[in-house]
Structure prediction request, 408 residues.
Amino acid sequence: MSLLHHTSSVPLARAIRSRALTISSRAAVTFPSVKKLPHVDSHVLLGMSELELQQLAADLGQEKYRGKQLHHLLYKRKVKDIEDFSNLPQAFRSNLRDAGWRVGRSPVHQAVTAADGTVKLLLKLEDNRLVETVGIPVKDDKGSARLTACVSSQVGCPLRCSFCATGKGGFSRNLQRHEIIEQVLAIEELFQQRVTNVVFMGMGEPMLNLKAVLEAHQCLNKDVQIGQRMMTISTVGVPNTIKKLASHKLQSTLAVSLHAPNQKLRETIVPSAKSYPLHAIMKDCTDYFQETSRRVTFEYTLLAGVNDTVEHAIELAELLHEWGRGYHVNLIPFNPIEGSEYRRPYRKAVAAFEAALESRKITASVRQTRGLDASAACGQLRNEFQKSPLVADNSDSSQSQPDMPVLC
Prediction:
């Protein structure tokens, strides 16, 4: 299940341009490049470290320990507004507001809860764009509770994978670091418990917003105190970015969305595959493992009659063996979305695919589908409320939007 600041005078529509990337000495290919926002709002408290907050306090004429109090208010108490920093002196609060500082938390626009306890939230950002995040509660066989936050990295997505609801909704812009971090805090606040796992598998392609993703990752690790090994960064594959990620030597999991065992089929499912050949992705994944000693997970969405046969599984196993051992394949039965030509495979087909992999010494698991009745496939809920992220809507949509559909 792939889940999920500026005033209105700043243009929201961001053009996507192509740039030449040489994958090999024989072929030059293109890949969509996302234009950055003209500036990043530097007056947001969320995302700042304790040391940075202490320095801010000192810059505003306060004792440095006030910065430690700020840190506690932001990440432990999850206070959303400077006016509610009740244990800080009024003068300090006034100085923060006068200097243009704000917390950087967005209101929940809509929340939908599935029968299995999965909750999908729509957060309404300052420019009225809507972004999804999903909270997934799980209890293991021993009764231990786990809460996973599936976070978005972009408003929409420019890659337009054929099976993904996010791509059908279009693309607007990258998220800033605090807009990623606040998704986790919103899930914690709603469930009234700590998030134990974070997966960057929501709306958007994390590698096209790698700087903000890495900054959010660091804050979630250091300040929100979620272990690096409890976080996963997912990508469909963007040239040169896997190498860049490897250089940071994170202990988090890299998950690569493969979805096909050969280049020809992959191009029909993932349009951007034309710009990043399968052999190039596999080479980068091999190098990533050698650089970080962290096993790469391959995400494989099973589409009935398209890529879900035993023959496909055998071809996938051969591909992975060709590039080394130790890979893990995460099989994801397609989560139905309105208007899609794809169908969810039968359980028998899923089981046969998994068995074919495991009989060839490829470790595989089938991801349990969660939140089918809460439009939990990536992009579904956002698309119900905001069909295109490129057009601003300043109206009070809560008064005019239809009820949420039940997708089974």
